Amino acid sequence: MTVKRIVPNFKMPDPQRARDFYEKVLGLEVVMDLNWILTFACSETSKPQISIAAEGGNGTDVPDVSIEVTNVDETYEKARKFGAEIVYDICDEEWGVRRFYVKDPTGKILNIISHK
Length: 116
Known about the structure:
It contains two helices and six strands. By secondary structure, it is of the alpha+beta class. The protein has a single domain (15-43, 52-115), classed as 2,3-Dihydroxybiphenyl 1,2-Dioxygenase, domain 1 (Roll). The termini are far apart. The mean pLDDT is 96.
């Protein structure tokens, strides 16, 4: 058996309210819209991963999901312009990533990262 993909599911009474955030801030496209569920994706492929953590690093809470982007600074500016709540400000971490935490419209904490 091979795991082909891993999909986090975030509960929200009106999934359409999250559409702008995921399209405009993260550049994802809607690949499935059944009104009660939206699935966002990008054309790049990646390996399925799950992280198990006691903390989020540097004393932060464990985020709900980590999303690697090609340009974390650009994504940070998009999140700020969108008015999203930045929970952990952008910084360089000693383990080789640049990241920030942002709260999405469902209230989930996203760890947005780029590797150095």
